[in-house]
Write a structure and sequence with these properties.
Strands 1-5-4-3-2 form a 5-stranded mixed β-sheet. A two-stranded antiparallel sheet has the order 6-7. The protein contains 4 helices and 7 strands.
Length: 157
């Protein structure tokens, strides 16, 4: 009988601990209530090299699934020179979409910042999210165009 009580108490402790951990994680990454909350949370996570935060606050069309997305972000962190960002323009498209233009700041490159990059922030079932789509930047002209998703690129060995 005493053994059952100990097991029950241990099980109750594990369940209670899981609830505390889950609620702490949700408190740290709260659902974005505004487009600007989503954008700043996403870009702050990007600068902090926080793949989980980036994934929480965005939808990324570069990847086919969440596993490859997380692996891609972690791989990118090793070579990513982005050190800051500035949201330079915001346009309301409709009640559930906002177009932002974001300048990314770089360190250790021959260029110091990107041209303004377009990002759509949209309202989802789980709050506002940043839509991350493939972009190509011509570093000579500053022209930004739609790019090829990472999952569709073919690399040669």
């Amino acid at each position: 009988m005493k053994r059952k009580k100990i097991v029950s108490l241990l099980l109750a402790g594990v369940v209670a601990g899981s609830i505390v951990v889950a609620s702490t994680t949700m408190a740290e990454k709260g659902v974005a209530q505004t487009p600007m909350d989503a954008a700043t949370s996403y870009f702050d996570a990007y600068i902090a090299k926080d793949a989980e935060g980036m994934m929480f606050y965005s939808k990324d069309t570069n990847y086919l699934d969440e596993k490859s997305r997380e692996e891609g972000y972690i791989k990118d962190f090793k070579t990513n020179p982005t050190t800051g960002y500035e949201i330079v323009e915001s346009k309301q498209i409709n009640s559930s979409e906002v177009q932002l233009y974001v300048v990314q700041k770089y360190a250790g490159q021959s260029y110091e910042q990107s041209p303004p990059l377009p990002f759509t922030v949209f309202k989802s079932e789980n709050g506002w999210k940043v839509m991350v789509e493939p972009l190509e930047i011509n570093t000579v002209t500053g022209e930004v165009t739609k790019g090829t998703p990472i999952h569709a690129m073919q690399f040669m060995d």
